[in-house]
């Protein structure tokens, strides 16, 4: 028997949400945006019930935690030293929007691009203002609420400092250690500069005179479908990578060909 589409379900009520711009001032958001994607990408979840989020990469070289129960709290990403680079870490304030944090954490699940990373390229594409300030190089968003800064420490090490704040001082900051892989910092800057608004439920929109909001009605099944699409994409990418590793061709014996002539088929 052929089924017909019956809509979103009987009696489903739309809920009020808001699109928030700029995204840097949208507040932290739902941590599951990150954790569910990592879980679908094969990461281990070591979180304890009612405690901080704690996740570990499949190869056990990277750990991600989110702790909202301490001050200042927020995100910590720690990478172990390996044959390609030194130990590194990133610290992001608890009000860093999950969509921007995901720029970094999603990139941890993908192979590194062969192209040389350029942290400034995504910012310049969105018309951020760049300038030298002594030994610092800073990019600022067109509305002045967000920034990305590079400077060298006393020992010559490169430090990255970034964040977003409104005129009342509400916002967040983040920093990356000198040895943080540049392709991860670029992935973060791309989401920081992304001009698209992000969505927050009613009651979760920060009070700020420097954000714009648009009210939208969203059904729970729509939200679930959007979230599931992100998870499905993560699973598909993980499956493709694992399949590529396990399906490398085996070396097989070459057929014998007599010297001086080609084989003929009978």
TrEMBL record:
It comes from the Bacteria. InterPro entries: DUF317_SPDY. Residues 56-111, 140-198 form the DUF317 domain. Pfam families: SPDY (PF03771). Residues 240-266 are annotated as: Disordered. Residues 240-259 have a biased composition (Low complexity). This is DUF317 domain-containing protein. It comes from Streptomyces filamentosus.
């Amino acid at each position: 028997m052929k089924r017909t589409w019956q809509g979103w379900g009987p009696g489903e009520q739309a809920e009020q949400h808001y699109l928030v711009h700029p995204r840097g001032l949208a507040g932290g958001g739902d941590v599951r945006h990150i954790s569910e994607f990592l879980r679908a990408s094969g990461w281990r979840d070591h979180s304890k019930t009612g405690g901080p989020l704690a996740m570990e990469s499949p190869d056990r070289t990277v750990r991600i935690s989110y702790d909202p129960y301490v001050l200042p709290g927020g995100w910590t990403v720690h990478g172990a030293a390996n044959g390609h680079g030194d130990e590194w870490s990133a610290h992001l304030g608890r009000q860093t929007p999950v969509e921007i944090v995901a720029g970094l954490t999603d990139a941890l699940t993908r192979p590194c691009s062969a192209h040389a990373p350029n942290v400034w390229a995504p910012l310049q594409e969105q018309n951020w203002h760049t300038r030298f300030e002594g030994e610092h190089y800073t990019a600022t968003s067109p509305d002045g609420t967000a920034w990305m800064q590079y400077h060298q420490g006393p020992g010559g090490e490169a430090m990255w400092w970034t964040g977003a704040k409104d005129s009342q001082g509400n916002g967040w900051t983040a920093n990356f250690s000198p040895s943080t892989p540049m392709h991860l910092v670029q992935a973060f800057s791309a989401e920081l500069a992304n001009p698209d608004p992000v969505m927050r439920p009613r009651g979760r929109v920060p009070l700020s005179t420097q954000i714009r909001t648009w009210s939208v009605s969203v059904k729970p099944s729509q939200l679930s479908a959007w979230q599931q699409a992100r998870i499905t994409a993560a699973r598909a990418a993980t499956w493709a990578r694992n399949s590529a590793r396990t399906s490398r061709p085996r070396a097989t014996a070459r057929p014998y060909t007599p010297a001086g002539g080609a084989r003929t088929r009978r």
